[in-house]
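Propose amino acids for all 127 sites.
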């Protein structure tokens, strides 16, 4: 992926990046997360809220492998396995950060909302 594309996509506002995330996930049927050496997924958030950041393409997630996450790795997740996992995340009250940019500006959605958004997007690709 070229640097200009990365800049252009990161320049989108949070809602536009979330839409980009949904379209890319539905198209390629993969999603990317970051995990530490213990295979625990990294979380962001404050005020007691756990938020799991997700990215649509590996190259975007790799940009976050610095500072605190420099010893972490990007994990590719099959979309259907991820959607099954969203039920568990919903029970655990873990929200999703849909495609944060370098300033961690993002849309926070519940796991159930993300699952529903993905189902709608996947249905468009299947028609």
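Proposal:
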């Amino acid at each position: 992926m070229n640097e200009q594309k990365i800049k252009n996509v990161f320049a989108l506002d949070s809602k536009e990046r979330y839409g980009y995330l949904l379209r890319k996930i539905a198209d390629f049927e993969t999603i990317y997360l970051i995990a530490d050496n213990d295979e625990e997924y990294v979380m962001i958030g404050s005020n007691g809220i756990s938020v799991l950041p997700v990215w649509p393409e590996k190259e975007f997630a790799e940009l976050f492998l610095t500072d605190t996450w420099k010893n972490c790795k990007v994990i590719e997740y099959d979309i259907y396995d991820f959607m099954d996992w969203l039920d568990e995340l919903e029970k655990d009250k873990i929200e999703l950060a849909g495609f944060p940019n370098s300033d961690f500006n993002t849309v926070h959605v519940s796991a159930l909302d993300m699952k529903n958004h993905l189902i709608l997007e996947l249905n468009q690709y299947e028609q």
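The chain has one domain: 3-126. The chain has a mean pLDDT of 92.
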